[in-house]
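Appendix C. Worked example: Methyltransferase type 11
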Amino acid sequence: MADTAWEWDETLFAGSARHYSVGRLPYPPELADAIRAALDLDGTGRLLDVGCGPGSLTLLLAPLFEAAVGVDPDRGMLAEAQRRAVTAGTTTVEWRHLRAEALPADLGTFRVATFAQSFHWMDRPLVARRVRDMLGPDGAWVHVGATTHQGVTGDDPLPYPRPPWPQINELVSRYLGPVRRAGQGTLPSGTPSGEGEIMLAAGFTGPTRITVEQGMVVERSVDEIVSAVFSLSSSAPHLFGDRLAAFEADLRELLTAAARDGRFAERRQDVGVVIWRP
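Step 2, the predicted output written as structure tokens:
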């Protein structure tokens, strides 16, 4: 990776894919409406979703285009994406196992390229240049930022207790250490920032920013919070090794004690959309 000492490896999300459907809150339909309106989409052109994971964003936006391609370096994520596509009856998406750094990979030209919390895992200057060359004259790069594993922090009254995220994080640290894990490496300072400078240097203009407001309250079960934890790169199942069962038992004990009738409640976070034009 060009802009940090951390290097990607294929274990980054090993074992996490199956937990997405259970533990991650889905993107709202209003997100697709906002992107359609902002880009004046009319059902033509192709979508490229880079770092598509289990297809959460790909499948939401695919109906806005003639066809879509989701690319990801994790085979488990792509298997989950294919399963979801079958369940949804979506037949217009092609799933490709490759890293973003391998683009353009003879995939052709696209009207929109999307990145949903994936760009920070890549060689960002390289990927920005390569994806820019894959966009058509009216193309757009769309970055979707939203925390989908947990809701908004706060003390406003909810119908059930909030998940005890500070205690969950403390438990993860007890098992994995205080420095954030990521694949076979660590991220002492978290994921990198400075996206704007990289995009401008790659020849993009903008950005245009949109916020899709949510704020609705959702109820969540103990199982959903367990999967939310395992869906994260910093607490992916493989990181625990032979202590995985012990960690999950401790996590479930913590959650069961904090829940009421096995339930939690959270207020959903807004979704930020950043649009760049080549």
